[in-house]
Amino acid sequence: METTQAKAFGTETTIAPLQPMTIERRQPTAKDVEIDILYCGVCHSDLHTARNDWGGSVYPVVPGHEIVGRVLSVGGGVTKVKPGDLVAVGCMVDSCKQCSSCEEDLEQYCLNGFTGTYNGNDKHLNIQTYGGYSEKVVVDEHFVLTMPENLDPAAAAPLLCAGITTWSPLRHWNVGEGSKVAVVGLGGLGHMAIKLANALGAHVTLFSRTPGKTQDALDLGAHEVVISTDADDMKKVNGKFDIIIDTVPYVHDLNPYVATLAINGTLVVVGYLGPLEHMLNTVPMILGRKTVAGSVIGGIAETQEMLDFCGKHNIVSEIETIKIQDINEAFERMVKSDVRYRFVIDMASLKG
Predict the structure, then answer these.
(1) What's the count of helices (H) and strands (E) in the chain, helices before strands?
(2) Which CATH superfamily is domain 3-160+317-351 in?
């Protein structure tokens, strides 16, 4: 298959900084869309993959799966979008499209494994996929999303991961008018969970370890803040919440939060991958039919639903825009949670 070259930023090893490189993109097939990337959000997954924290990274790694751009060209069989359209690409660029999950619009749970936007396998070129820290990308039309034109494209980029990661459990567990929702952690995912749950009509509470984020949470749409390190504060919300979205990306004790679930309530872990500490106490789960569950991103149809909802309600992320040349500094700041609440790369800085 013919390829074209594209400018990108990536890394060759686990310890090397991200730096300019040239990558190969396939020439669009009949069902492909070629996209000029305007903005790309910076996700913790980008850092973890660049540094091989989860194992399995194939180098060179070019991260980025919160992509917003305009269509440059389309293959002859493409009907979904046309040149000039404002579009988006999230965490997936392919799946088997045939298994039971794919047939139910749950490509994120493809039984044969979805193809990640980066560090996946490009079945056309038989090399790893490269992400949005690049000037352009070529994607199967099924995985191209339409971005509402009324949204700021830079601030909308994090919707493609932080947004859908929190939207999917809110929708799956039927959050709506009058639902009592709590969010653990106020970062890239947490602030989106607050905005989306509020717009769905829920009563939203933030669990925070310190009072310092109280005003921010209220400004974002939370109705109250509970200090999780304050035993008296936690007792006040015992048995209250229908659903808790836990966005904390490191090991932490879930048991105090389980106690705050209502009967039939669910705590959904979306931020942390790995073994739990401390061990879950099943007593409150059994006596209250409470559930601890997990969720990852969302299918393509669900992601489009989320983007349309955000367009209708004017919901975007709180962002700090950076140049691609500042990505290594941004990674270090992200580790320290020194961002409110998501970095987004202006890709004009790569093309200039």
Answers:
(1) 12, 19
(2) Medium-chain alcohol dehydrogenases, catalytic domain (3.90.180.10)
